[in-house]
Structure to design on (65 residues):
């Protein structure tokens, strides 16, 4: 079943291990889940604060507030 989920985060979450940090995706757009692949950068460039978007591949489609 398809679902629409509101993601508030526009960047990854750092999980600091012993030697090197690991970044977990929080925007939901990474193609390398659960790890961040930098896809959140599109959120910051294309989105307006307070608006709701649906992503179709790389394209953001505004669907409301």
């Amino acid at each position: 079943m398809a679902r629409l989920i509101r993601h508030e985060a526009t960047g990854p979450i750092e999980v600091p291990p012993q030697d090197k940090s690991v970044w977990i995706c929080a925007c939901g757009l990474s193609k390398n889940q659960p790890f961040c692949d930098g896809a959140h950068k599109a959120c910051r460039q294309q989105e307006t604060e307070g608006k709701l978007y649906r992503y179709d591949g790389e394209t953001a489609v505004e669907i409301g507030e």
